[in-house]
Structures are given as structure tokens and as C-alpha cells.
Fold:
Amino acid sequence: MKLGIDNMEHYRRFIEDVLVGNLVLGGKCKNDCKYCDLKATMGAIGIENYTNLISMENVKDVISFLGIINRTGQISVGEGNHFLSCEPLMHPKYLDIVKLVRKKFPNRKIVTLTTGELIKPGWYETLKQLNIRFIVSVNTMDQKEKSELMRTKTPVEHVIDFLEKCEFIIDTLSFVYFGKLKSLERDIKFIHELHPNYKNKTFRIILADYSVHHDLEAKELHDFAKKTWHEANYLMHELHPNFEAYIRNFDDYPELPPKVHYKRIFFNSMRMALETIQQYRLDPSDVGFLFPESSYSYAVRELNFLKDNAILVKNITFAGSYQASGLMTMKDIRHALNETKKKFKYYIAPYDLGMLYKKDLAGEYIDENIIMI
Structure:
């Protein structure tokens, strides 16, 4: 098997990920999950989301500046912002790579996002010694459901063995909710019984989304799951209080405790926006605020001063059920500005719009009159 990135554009994007702390291992996930977000990428923005498996030489070339502009200090070994379609544990040199990264960064938190299907039992003790932390997308613990949803042939017992024997290094478990409350309850209780410490770990549930670039099967899965999505969150709160709710829209279940976390982020961002306006001595009437569908109605209702300055930016690039700010593009913004009568000299947008070096997901630079907070 040939290792190493030989495409110059891919290598440039690989370096951009390295600088923010993401060591992309490359390769393409062998599963074919019905709900996989990456199916939308090529159709929506025409950019490949996978590259060759990297070589040890690639690692050695970049390790000295891995994460030099990272805000958190955390290092991700596996996927990145540019290349999301990889399963890190499929890399034949995964263990050698994390050993090298740990040697270079003995005190950093090193994280790998994985399905856990390709973990080798012979790696367990070494990974514990290296203190590599894992976010595991288990999605379901039932073999039939797993085969249908993820189109995988890996026995679920393989993942169970990993969860049971490596509890110490597993930080977070993630579940895609596909509409079956009893299955969700069964899985949470089953994992709690694997090890008592799982009751204190972070669990996530995510609603299966779809875009116009997915097939009909993905939309049907989303529509079915959405019918009991709120009930699933209440069930999770009851069974496992330390869970992260996936808030698709700020108007969802206002009384649910996890909502407070999102409120805090929102109001901190708005405070920073107002401070920026004051710092640059801008006339507030000259500044428009760009909001995705997930927060627009909440913003104009909770903050009266936004009534005349808020602009709704719908996601037309991916469309379907996508509403998050991180998937906004300049195409979406231009469409929104053409549709509205509100015109401003400057615009404030969410930080994650241009988190990739002031470029959107499609690689287009953010307009100079847009301030990202």
C-alpha cells in the first residue's frame, strides 16, 4: 500500500489542518452510513473530503508545528476540517503515529474520533499508556440496526470489547438517533452496565440530518427520527444527565438544561460583537447581523435591538435539514443579502463561518466587510 499525500492541493489543505491541531491520517471510511454528512460535500461544494493515507515522512515533516495556532491546545489524530472522510484506525501506522505525537507533546490532550470497529485488542495497553483519548461513534449496539444504518459487517462484539476494556481512555460516546426510543434506552442501559464509570462520561445524541445531495433514504430516516426527537432528548436527560443535546434550533425545548450551555455561548458571542462595534467606533446602524436558521428567531425575540439589523441566512448550499452556522457559505450569504431590503456597510457573522483561515467550506474567502465573532 502506497502511503503519502502526492496531490499539492491536498497537501496545502493538510498543512492548514495541521496548524490548528488536526493531524489528518487520510484514507476513506469503508462504511456507507445512510446519514453520513460527507455525502453532501462533493455535491454541494465540489471538494473532495478525503486524501491518501499519510506517510511517516509526512508526520515527521509537520509535527514541529502541529497545533501552533490552536486555541485549545488539543490535538486531533484522525480527521480534520478539510478531510472528514477517514476512519483513523484503518491507517496501518496508527499506533506508530500516536507514539510519535505523544513523544513530541507529552502533556497535550490527544484525541481520536472513531467508530471503534477497527481497533486491535493488541493495541489496548499501549493506547492506555499513551493516554490517547477517544470519542466513539457507537450509534447503536444492535447488530442488525448497525448493519442497516452503517452498512458495516464488523461484529458489534468487537466494539463492545473495546468499550469494556478501554473505558479509562474513552471520553465521549456518540449516538445517531434514528427514531427508535426503545433502542436508545436499551443501548444507554447496556453501556452503563459495561462499566460503572460510563454513567459519568459524556454521551451525545445527534439527529440524522440530510441534504439535497443525499438520497431519499436519508430524508426518510430524518423525518422518521424527528417525530420523536424531543422525546429522545428528555429520555436521555432522565437516563444519563451528563449528555450533550444536539440543538438544531434555539427554539427547541427551552426548558431542557443543556439549552443553557448554548445560551451562554450565544450571549457571549453577542457581547463580543457589541464590544467590537465599540472598539472600531462603528455606527450600530451601519452593522447587520447574519444569523443561520438555528438562531435567527431566538435572536430577534430575545434581543430587541436586533429587530432592524438581523438578517436570516438560509442554507441553500446544502439545504435539506441543515441549519447550523458552521455550514454557512458565502453563496448563502449573498443569496440572503440579495433577498433582503436591509443593506449595511458591515456585517457580523458567526466565527465558524470562516474558521478555515477566513475561508468558507467551499474555500472561498470571506468578504472583507464581514466581521466574524
Notes: The longest strand covers residues 170-177. The mean pLDDT is 88. The chain has two domains: 8-247, 261-372.
